[in-house]
Design goal:
Helix content: over 70%
Number of strands: 0
Order of helices and strands: HHHHHHHHHHH
Largest sheet: none
Strand content: under 5%
Length: about 250
């Protein structure tokens, strides 16, 4: 019953979609029926096209996400600990954060060409700031009382960092990663605008050029499903860590 409640809006939208298709309110060219979409899904999986494009997009997101996580982790820790240093970089970081990565596509093509580098950079830019902000927040707002206790017990700065600050920051780090991976899937279509010949973004754009709304919808739904699964895994991990952390504090 809980599953039905959580998905009641989704189920309602599917029912409305079926009714609209049956009543022919919109032509199949504009809004294909759910049956048509399922058939296209089956065909694309059977010929290997959907699996190949999903794998390539996932690989691009993973590489871009991994690069931005490493950078966000380093700078998040550095600026979280050294607030006085962060003040010098705050305005420039806010300026860069508000520039949509897709708007940089023309420059990235000029600087890095139309290969994989441009696509990876777009994804990295899209995923960096959610992780950086959350990591820095977690490091900066570590429990000051516990840090004072650590100092009174003679803990070194390194031990305080790994024993107190890092464990406190893990939920924030995972939350940032969860948001970041979502931004990565949002950016993949824009990234694959850069002369791509494969990937889910390419699949959607190619379908648009061929006036295949059914194939475009399949690509969009696939991105949503993959993104949802990644989001779910991160949410599950955050809940598990929060649970164990709560038990640890109680005991």
């Amino acid at each position: 019953m809980t599953i039905i409640k959580k998905n009641i809006v989704f189920i309602a939208l599917i029912i409305i979609w079926i009714i609209i298709s049956k009543l022919n309110i919109y032509s199949a060219y504009i809004l294909p029926s759910p049956t048509k979409i399922i058939n296209v899904f089956y065909t694309e999986i059977l010929n290997g096209s959907l699996i190949k494009n999903t794998y390539i997009s996932l690989l691009r997101v993973f590489i871009g996400f991994s690069i931005s996580f490493i950078l966000a982790f380093i700078f998040g820790i550095m600026f979280g600990i050294k607030e006085n240093i962060f003040q010098y970089f705050e305005n420039i970081l806010e300026f860069i954060r508000n520039i949509p990565p897709i708007s940089l596509i023309p420059l990235l093509i000029l600087w890095f060409g139309i290969g994989e580098k441009s696509k990876i950079i777009i994804i990295s830019l899209a995923t960096f700031f959610p992780m950086f902000i959350n990591i820095r927040y977690g490091i900066k707002n570590a429990d000051k009382k516990l840090i004072e206790v650590g100092k009174s017990l003679g803990f070194s700065k390194i031990k305080i960092f790994f024993s107190i600050i890092m464990p406190h920051s893990i939920p924030n780090i995972l939350s940032g990663m969860k948001i970041g991976i979502g931004y990565g899937f949002r950016a993949i279509v824009g990234a694959e605008l850069v002369a791509a010949s494969s990937g889910l973004g390419f699949m959607i754009l190619d379908a648009q050029q061929l006036s295949r709304s059914d194939k475009a919808i399949v690509g969009i739904i696939t991105i949503g499903i993959v993104g949802f699964l990644c989001d779910y895994l991160f949410s599950l991990l955050i809940r598990k860590i929060s649970y164990y952390k709560g038990n640890y504090i109680e005991n």
